[in-house]
Amino acid sequence: MNATSSTLVIGATGTTGRRVAAGLIAERHRVKAAGRSATPVDGAQAVRFDWNEPATWAEALDGVDRVYLVPPIGSSDPATVMLPFLRQARAAGVHRAVLLSSSAIPAGGPAVGQVHQALPGLFEQWAVLRPSWFMQNFTGSTPHARSIREDGAILTASGDGRVGFVDAEDIAAVAVHALTDEQAPNTDLVLTGPQTLSYDDVAAIITEVTGRPVVHRHLTFEQLRDRWAAEIPLEFATMLAGMDRAIAEGAEDRTSDTVQRLTGRPPSTFRVFVEREVA
Where are any strands of DSSP class E within 199-245? Predict the structure, then answer.
């Protein structure tokens, strides 16, 4: 990495972005921490950035040669704003892009899958991170965390389907490698934890570690869709409920060795995560 260049981290105060920024800073890389409020980040240059305000893009890209991309939250068509930005980034001198996508969305698939498909044609150096469901979905102000606190329940339409839940710390560690290694991955990387768990398993582990009873309530696709639609647009709610249905059908019942292979350490288990962040 050029000593005078910076890495733009979009969503630098978010779940993965703040961890990516911290990892880069710890390795003494220059970071521009981008967000809608330009929130200060220790060791980084804060810069205002909004996907929906192209006037903020040029300053964010000034002096940048690499970028960590977190799509606009809640958008069912992120390519509409992301592709114009990426073309501007290439023209501004960015040569490596690392995109946060999802294990559930392949290249050319819906939403960010369209950006994934376009990325290799825009940059010679690239990677697409495709993590499974975040362990952090059970902490903070997330829907699962709220329902656990308020009702002692996790509500899904995933049935007995299993998921290779992954820690955001591990996602960020892979992102730092993808951004800084001499050779870019130039591929997509499916990221999981070391084991697959059903939501019944998740509820049992949280119960065992915290001592607070938590159960998994099985909803239908329609029930979950309507529950989401009370908070977000119907199209996006339908897509999210569809992801749960895919879990029920076995789409996420897999693990990968990517975290171990790229970082040299095994991914965190869900139990260790709960002991660290929930208990």
Answer: 215-218
The 10s digit of each residue's pLDDT in 122-160 is 999 999 999 999 999 999 999 999 999 999 999 999 999
Give the span between the Cα atoms of 144 and 139, in whole angstroms. Answer: 8
Instruction: Please say whether the dihedral angle defined by the alpha carbons of residues 102, 269, 273 and 279, taken in this order, is positive or negative.
Output: positive
Alpha-carbon gap, residue 177 to 133, rounded angstroms: 21
Residue in this structure with the two tokens 């290249």, named with its chain if needed = 107
- Express each pLDDT in 252-264 by its tens digit: 999 999 999 999 9
129: left (phi over 0), alpha (psi -120 to 50) or beta: beta
DSSP reduced 3-state for 56: helix
Rounded to 5°, the CA angle 213-214-219 comes to 150
Neighbours of 78 (CB within 10 A): 21
d(CA 225, CA 216): 17
Percentage helix, strand, coil for the chain under 3-state DSSP, each rounded to 5: 40, 20, 40
pTM (2 decimals)? 0.95
Cβ–Cβ under 8 Å, residues 151 and 119: no
Give the chain's mean pLDDT: 96
One-letter amino acid at 221 equals F
Give the number of C-alpha atoms closer than 13 A to the C-alpha of residue 243, restricted to the C-beta side.
17
Q: Is the pLDDT of residue 240 over 80?
A: yes
> Which two tokens mark 126?
């690239």
